[in-house]
Amino acid sequence: MNTAILLFALKIVMLVAATAQTAGFIGLFAIEALGPYEWQLMIGGTIAIMVSDSATHLLVKRMATAAAATDVQSGMATDRN
Fold it and tell me: What pLDDT is stored for residue 44 in this prediction?
């Protein structure tokens, strides 16, 4: 259950980062008030998306490894070649 909550939190972080990145991009063309923050929003959003996506990948990879180990211990693993 904790893993599902962590995955959900990472997806929320990615959503917020994508929103910041989009606001920065729109600020380049349309919104003058974002002028001083355009690049910070775009670069920060991109970095946050990369970190969140990498963390999600590592977490899911760890979950798959744990599930495979559980299958082997319980005798449910089969050779799928």
Answer: 92
**Angstrom distances, CA of residue 22 to CA of 37, 38, 48, 54:** 12, 10, 13, 20
User: Can you tell me the distance from the alpha carbon of 81 to that of 76, in angstroms, rounded to the nearest whole number?
Assistant: 15
Decide if 35 contacts 27 (C-beta within 8 A): yes
Three-state secondary structure readout of the chain: CHHHHHHHHHHHHHHHHHHHHHHHHHHHHCCHHHHHHHHHHHHHHHHHHHHHHHHHHHHHHHHHHHHHHHHHHHCCCCCCC
- Residue showing tokens 């606001």: 23
Q: Tokens standing for 60?
A: 């899911």
pLDDT, position 64: 87
Tens of pLDDT along 64-77? 888 888 877 776 65
